[in-house]
Specification:
3 helices; five-stranded antiparallel sheet; Alpha-Beta Plaits; 37% helix; alpha+beta; single chain; 31% strand
Length: 111
């Protein structure tokens, strides 16, 4: 079983950087998801980064890596795991704890 984490960045241009950052995390597959293009527009912008990770330690490592990346970039992100959304604005141990709890609940759901 895996857990999907959706990461929406305030600056969508940073999704490529975050994607590269998470490529080194074992048991994690990160995929940029494009924004739907409107009539007359070309695509190319990213809507969010979909991160699939194995349950257990991979989730914890992924959330810690994500938090470290956000802190280093001084950026904001909205992270969604299941029905739980958490806003991250730099160091926030309480937000990270809410994400860990949401990831644990998501891992318990049986298909």
């Amino acid at each position: 079983m895996s857990v999907e984490i959706k990461v929406y960045l305030t600056d969508g241009g940073d999704i490529s950087s975050l994607h590269a950052w998470l490529e080194d995390v074992p048991q994690v597959v990160a995929t940029p998801v494009p924004s739907p293009s409107r009539p007359g527009e070309q695509g190319g912008a990213w809507d969010f980064l979909s991160v699939l990770c194995g349950t257990g330690g991979a989730v914890t490592v992924t959330l810690n890596a994500l938090t470290a990346w956000i802190e280093s970039k001084t950026t904001q992100a909205k992270v969604k795991i299941g029905e739980v959304e958490v806003e991250l604005r730099g160091p926030d141990p309480e937000a990270l704890a809410r994400l860990m709890e949401a990831a644990s609940k998501a891992a318990e759901i049986k298909p």
